[in-house]
Specification:
Layout: H1 13-18, H2 21-31, E1 49-53, E2 57-63, E3 72-77, E4 80-87, E5 105-112, E6 123-127, E7 130-136
Antiparallel strand pairs: 1-2, 2-7, 3-4, 4-5, 6-7
Length: 151
């Protein structure tokens, strides 16, 4: 049996000050053309996904915490399912950001669906920050049992 211990990591503001990291972040941001007062760096991110299959369907689940469902677009071209969206950062005009680790910005995920999927019946829903797409298999591709007749 393998036992592991998890320790939470909380960055210390004093550590950044003592080691000059706050100035380093300011200098790097300035070199990239990001104003020191904005505290915002636009980046892209890739939401994590699970793909599962059972006898009736294929399900794709993406973690999209903090993403407004209106900012998610799903497209299907040929057999390629494209999920595009954006996680927006709430801008507070009066706040000065010292440090942030949460990722914001646009994302795109693409999935190639197998021929066994009925693309006309794909459904999508978001619940508790998880986007779930269900792609039912075409009737003729589902496994079936063949009865053995006794002569």
């Amino acid at each position: 049996m393998l036992l592991t211990t998890r320790r939470s990591y909380v960055p210390s503001h004093r550590f950044f000050k003592l080691n000059g990291f706050d100035q380093l972040f300011h200098d790097v941001g300035s070199a990239l053309g990001v104003p020191a007062t904005s505290g915002t760096i636009v980046t892209s991110w890739l939401p994590t996904a699970d793909v599962r299959e059972d006898k009736d369907s294929i399900r794709i689940a993406l973690d999209l915490p903090g993403v407004n469902p209106n900012d998610v677009k799903i497209a299907l071209e040929d057999r390629t399912l494209t999920i595009h969206g954006e996680k927006k950062q709430a801008a507070e005009a009066e706040e000065r950001v010292h440090h942030f680790e949460r990722v914001f910005g646009p994302f795109t995920r693409k999935f190639l669906l197998p021929n066994s999927v009925n693309t006309d019946r794909i459904e999508a829903k978001i619940e508790h920050g998880v986007l779930t797409l269900t792609a039912p298999k075409a009737e003729q591709t589902r496994p079936r049992e063949i009865a053995v007749k006794v002569a």
